[in-house]
Amino acid sequence: MKERIIKEAYKLFWRFGIKSVTMDDIAKDLGISKRTIYQHFPDKEAIVILVVKHELETQQCQMDKMEEDKLNPIEQMVLGADYMRISLAHMNPVVFHDLKKYHPLAWDLFHQYKHEYIIKGIRENLVEGVEAGLYRKEMNVDMLSILRMEQVLMAFDPTIFPADRFNMMNIQMEFVNHFLHGILTEKGLEYYTKYTEESATSITHEK
């Protein structure tokens, strides 16, 4: 039952945002009483924390898999953004706003994950790309690691990119394309161009 509650809360939070979803909403969608939920969770905050933990663990497993596959740094960067595009395609952009404003403990989990895992992973990607001659060696990898992370978060800010004008996931792919063009060497650009053309051709054939 505890797992069912977490899964249903995840679906509702991602669709409607966290603030607008009540314990009554979760109970109604599960066809159980609110009292049953309180037998497993003391409050909504406890549910939010576990939902965030679950999502971060899922993201980390996917990123670890890409690392194990020993992909080219450029492929890693593009596929990481593409995975995000797919996995967060149905997430309401207000989720990040709600986390930051109303659920500080859950937000701290994300903030810690951002610095200890995501930015660290981006930095490693940049270092590998420099060593492979794909990225410019004179760039500041620490600065650009943070910049890339903030680009990802910026796409979720409705005050910058209103949902009625921009598609959040299209923004993510545009950002990674822009970012890579700023750091690629001639060798890297040649590889990136070939890779994106082959990817586009593959998608066309699948259709």
Question: How would you describe this protein?
Answer:
The chain has 207 residues and is mostly helical. It has one domain: Orthogonal Bundle (Tetracycline Repressor, domain 2), CATH 1.10.357. Helices cover 76% and strands 0% of the residues. It is built from ten helices and no strands. It has helices at 2-16, 23-30, 34-40, 44-68, 73-87, 94-102, 104-131, 141-154, 168-183, 186-206. Helix 4 runs antiparallel to helix 5. The longest helix has 28 residues, at 104-131. It is elongated and about 60 Å long. The N and C termini lie far apart (40 Å).
Structural shape: elongated
Number of strands: 0
- Approximate strand percentage: under 5%
Largest sheet: none
The radius of gyration computed from the alpha-carbon positions, rounded to a whole number of angstroms, is: 19 Å
Chart the SSEs and their pairings.
Layout: H1 2-16, H2 23-30, H3 34-40, H4 44-68, H5 73-87, H6 94-102, H7 104-131, H8 141-154, H9 168-183, H10 186-206
